[in-house]
């Protein structure tokens, strides 16, 4: 795996789009949270200050994870681009000709997905710590609620893994990105809506979104009576199961197909 | 050096694609180096299939670095293979700025990384100018003389004729003929003969064993013979039967006519 990752690094380190998308992700995620942190405490809804605590420990962990779940789409698009690039340049073929097994190609890309997710999670951890402390959180409170970092990591793996399957399946960047956005932003939300939020456990991306639902949303849902009490462990199992499905599908696809 | 010859769409690239595991065969099997695992075998093979495939945003050197890393060898050869293929001055230019011929050269350079035991070259001179074609052929011949096995697919007859010693001819996925280039050619040799008494000569040779066809053209007899029939036999046979030849010439039929004949035969 280390060897495969080293080769992927050779491919990526000179790719400008890779750095631009990473930079966009880090800068935008910081700016948006920085801005929101400044206004959240004074935000009120019918006199209810539901966001008052959202940028202090421990709620900050779920707030930034929730906002990060939107920005993770940048990283998903990045995964689609670097994967479909291989098809555009036909370097997927060349990698095999030069001596990779077909599964090596898949494992290398999964390695990239996991590495990006680790980096994104580290960044998330640092961002939460800094903004939380700047907002007057006690350092002693810092480590409360940190299971959110695990949830965020799983969410990232899920989104990027889903993007990888789409990219391997479609092979063309434009179409793959469109399909991914269409599903992630529209189709799944509609599906979730018309099934009355009851089956979110079974929707590939939604099951991870539930893990990072912000405290304010949970509060509102409870008030409206549509809150459900599914414990996080169910969503963790659902997320992991979907990742297994992605891996199996990709593997079957790559082993059977002409390159 | 083994040539795979066939018209467009005859299955040359498909065949090479299958043995390089980029295409999935419906049936059949292959093995490299007496049964080495396929991926380990491919690391010992330098191959160029159909088009030069490289990362557009990377320079020649960076692309070769990726190739060498996958093969697990050849990282020290980068400069020397670029030198061999005449790309040294452009080694730090991005692949996307290369001309078609330069891309092809880079693909050959990548195939040469790490002294492969076998080179698989699919239309290696595609897109090169005449000087480039001559240069690459010379390079391939030199490598072959150094003991590297070269498997080359081409639709260019003279290319195969000039550089290969073995050849297989394909048509629509079927193997038409395979063997040494000389043998494949020999079976179609024609012998030109002339004597003072053409009529007697024609009568005599029509009856000779191993002669398939006797044709009179331009006051000359054109003989199509079996591979076993050498000009010396014909000369001896005529002499023994009292006819002295005034002209005897072995005319190798070009691969081109053989090729067209072969590929038309089984329509």
Structural descriptors:
heterodimer; A: 259 residues; mainly alpha; 10 helices; 74% helix; globular; B: 267 residues; alpha/beta; Rossmann fold; Alpha-Beta Plaits; 2 domains; 6-stranded mixed β-sheet; 4-stranded antiparallel β-sheet; 11 helices; 39% helix; elongated
Overview of the molecule:
Chain A is globular. In chain A, 41% of the residues are buried. Chain A contains ten helices and no strands. Chain A starts with a helix and ends with a helix. Chain A has 259 residues and is mostly helical. The mean pLDDT of chain A is 88. The longest helix of chain A has 33 residues. Chain B is an alpha/beta fold. Chain B has two domains: 183 residues, Rossmann fold, CATH 3.40.50; 63 residues, Alpha-Beta Plaits, CATH 3.30.70.100. Helix content of chain B is 39%, strand content 22%. Chain B contains eleven helices and ten strands. In chain B, the strands form two sheets. In chain B, strands 2-3-4-1-5-6 form a six-stranded mixed sheet, sandwiched between helices. A four-stranded antiparallel sheet of chain B has the order 8-9-7-10, covered by helices on one side. In chain B, helix 4 crosses helix 5. The interface between A and B is medium-sized, with 27 and 30 residues.
Instruction: Just name the CATH architecture of the largest domain in chain B.
Output: 3-Layer(aba) Sandwich
Q: Strand percentage of chain B, roughly?
A: 15-25%
CATH superfamily of the largest domain in chain B: P-loop containing nucleotide triphosphate hydrolases
How would you sum up the major sheet of chain B? 6 strands, mixed
Instruction: Give the overall form of chain A.
Output: globular
What's the helix-strand series of chain B?
EHHEHHHEHEHEEHEHEEHEH
Proportion in β-strands of chain A: under 5%
Radius of gyration of chain A: 19 Å
Q: Please, how many domains of chain B?
A: 2
Helix count of chain A?
10
Structural class based on helices, strands and sheet pairing of chain A: mainly alpha
Structural class computed from helices and strand pairing of chain B = alpha/beta
**Can you tell me the CATH topology of the largest domain in chain B?**
Rossmann fold
Structure summary, number of beta strands of chain B:
10
- Radius of gyration of chain B from CA coordinates: 24 Å
């Amino acid at each position: 795996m280390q060897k495969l990752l080293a080769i992927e690094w050779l491919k990526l380190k000179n790719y400008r789009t890779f750095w631009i998308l990473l930079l966009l992700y880090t800068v935008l995620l910081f700016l948006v949270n920085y801005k929101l942190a400044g206004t959240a405490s004074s935000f009120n809804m019918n006199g209810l200050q539901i966001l008052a605590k959202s940028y202090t420990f421990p709620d900050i962990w779920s707030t930034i994870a929730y906002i990060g779940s939107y920005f993770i789409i940048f990283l998903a698009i990045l995964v689609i681009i670097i994967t479909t690039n291989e098809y555009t340049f036909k370097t997927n073929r060349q990698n095999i000709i030069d001596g990779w097994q077909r599964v090596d190609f898949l494992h290398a890309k999964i390695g990239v997905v996991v590495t990006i997710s680790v980096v994104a999670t580290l960044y998330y951890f640092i961002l939460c710590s800094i903004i939380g402390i700047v907002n007057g959180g006690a350092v002693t409170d810092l480590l409360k609620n940190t299971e959110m970092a695990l949830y965020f990591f799983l969410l990232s793996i899920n989104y990027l893994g889903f993007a990888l399957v789409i990219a391997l399946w479609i092979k063309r960047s434009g179409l793959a990105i469109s399909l991914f956005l269409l599903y992630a932003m529209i189709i799944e939300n509609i599906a979730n809506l018309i099934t009355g939020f009851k089956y979110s456990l079974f929707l590939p991306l939604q099951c991870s979104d539930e893990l990072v639902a912000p405290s304010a949303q949970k509060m509102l849902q409870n008030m409206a009576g549509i809150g459900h009490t599914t414990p996080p462990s169910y969503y963790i199992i659902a997320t992991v199961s979907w990742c297994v499905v992605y891996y199996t599908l990709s593997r079957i696809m790559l082993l059977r197909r002409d390159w | 050096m083994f040539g795979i010859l066939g018209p467009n769409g005859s299955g040359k690239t498909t065949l090479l694609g299958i043995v390089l595991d980029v295409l999935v065969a419906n049936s059949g099997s292959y093995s490299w180096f007496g049964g080495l695992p396929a991926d380990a075998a491919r690391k010992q093979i330098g191959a160029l299939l159909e088009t030069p495939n490289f990362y557009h945003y990377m320079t020649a050197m960076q692309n070769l670095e990726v190739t060498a890393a996958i093969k697990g060898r050849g990282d020290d050869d980068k400069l020397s293979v670029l030198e061999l293929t005449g790309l040294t001055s452009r080694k730090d230019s991005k692949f996307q700025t290369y001309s078609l011929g330069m891309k092809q050269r880079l693909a050959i350079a990548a195939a040469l990384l790490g002294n492969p035991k076998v080179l698989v070259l699919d239309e290696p001179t595609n897109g090169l100018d005449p000087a480039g074609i001559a240069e690459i052929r010379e390079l391939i011949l030199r490598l072959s003389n150094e003991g590297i096995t070269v498997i080359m697919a081409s639709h260019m007859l003279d290319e195969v004729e000039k550089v290969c010693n073995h050849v297989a001819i394909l048509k629509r996925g079927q193997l038409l003929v395979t063997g040494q280039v000389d043998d494949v050619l020999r079976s179609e040799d024609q012998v030109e003969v002339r004597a003072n008494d053409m009529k007697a000569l024609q009568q005599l040779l029509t009856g000779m064993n191993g002669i398939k066809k006797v044709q009179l053209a331009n006051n000359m007899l054109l003989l199509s013979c079996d591979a076993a029939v050498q000009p010396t036999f014909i000369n001896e046979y005529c002499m023994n039967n009292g006819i002295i030849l005034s002209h005897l010439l072995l005319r190798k039929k070009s691969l081109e006519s053989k090729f067209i004949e072969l590929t038309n035969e089984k329509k």
